[in-house]
Design a protein that fits this description.
By secondary structure, the chain is α/β, with parallel strands linked by helices. The protein has one domain: Class I glutamine amidotransferase (GATase) domain (Rossmann fold), CATH 3.40.50.880. Helices cover 26% and strands 27% of the residues. The chain has 8 helices and 15 strands. A 9-stranded mixed beta sheet has the order 3-2-4-5-1-10-11-14-15, with helices on both faces. Strands 8-9-12-13 form a 4-stranded mixed beta sheet. Helix 4 runs parallel beside helix 6.
């Protein structure tokens, strides 16, 4: 059993509010240091890095961040560039945009930029990601999968993530795209890992003590398979339906929390409401 988390993470389910109160992005700026923040935006996941980078650059400046820069790490050569590493070494907040999570791991994996990311994380920089940038945070990530049918063996494809969060698999755009089936499939493959499905305009703040807080307008779904006694995942043909029993499920909105080490919800006192 690992430490599960070695720093501060802000994991966003995608489609976060960018025009209203901007609660989630505002929290990222606050965690990164507000006026003293040095934020680096990484656009590796997207095929439109200039557009995505400018959008978040302008937003973070509007929300009061001190310094905001963008890194277009679109190749492994750029990921080993000294200037890239130097910018990440100074950052108090690193933000991954959405796109394709496999682009992030295939470009950053084993490079000096990835080493700089891990060092920044351990020294206290907040690491954030939205959509694909959320999925890539864990040591196991969902690369693709069907959302419009019952869970089957071929419902998902899994791959190694960045490993900032251990013993967890994350899915995003969760309720909006009906992704409970593919999260169940991921848990069936390895019941020891915890599934976390994050809705749009919703995020989790994860701290070094493995405590998690839900923020944003929707909910977060936790799928715990530790008590599973049976699954047919190893016996399935690709189009056969999944069987899995004794899955524990929690659905939590803003203000509630979760203890990742004990795998129990942290319930808010609603008696005065």
């Amino acid at each position: 059993m690992g430490n599960k988390v070695n720093g501060t993470l802000l994991v966003i389910g995608g489609a976060e509010d960018k025009e209203g109160k901007c609660e989630i992005l505002r929290e990222f700026v606050r965690l990164a240091g507000g006026p003293g923040a040095d934020i680096v935006i990484i656009t590796t996941a997207t095929l439109e890095p200039d557009r995505a980078g400018k959008k978040y650059h302008d937003l973070f400046q509007k929300l009061g961040a001190g310094t905001v820069g963008t890194l277009d790490i679109s190749s492994r050569e750029k990921a080993n560039n000294r200037c890239t590493v130097e910018k990440m070494a100074k950052a108090t907040g690193i933000f991954f945009t959405g796109g394709d999570q496999l682009r992030i791991t295939s470009i950053l994996g084993g490079t000096t930029a990835n080493e700089a990311l891990q060092k920044a994380y351990r020294r206290g920089a907040v690491i954030a990601g939205t959509s694909a940038g959320a999925s890539v945070m864990s040591d196991t990530m969902i690369v693709e999968g069907d959302s419009d049918e019952a869970p089957k063996l071929n419902t998902i494809k899994l791959a190694p993530g960045l490993g900032l969060l251990e013993e967890v698999v994350i899915d995003q755009h969760f309720a909006q795209r009906g992704r409970i089936g593919r999260l169940l499939s991921a848990i069936a493959h390895n019941p020891y890992i915890l599934g976390i499905g994050i809705d749009e305009d919703t995020a989790v703040v994860i701290r070094t003590d493995a405590s998690l807080e839900v923020i944003g307008s929707q909910t977060v779904t936790f799928v715990d398979g530790r008590d599973v006694t049976f699954t047919n995942v190893s016996e399935l043909l690709p189009d056969q339906a999944l069987a899995i029993d004794r899955v524990v499920l929690h659905v939590l909105p803003k203000g509630y929390g979760f203890d990742l080490a004990a795998r129990v919800p942290i319930i808010r006192d609603t008696g005065s409401e």
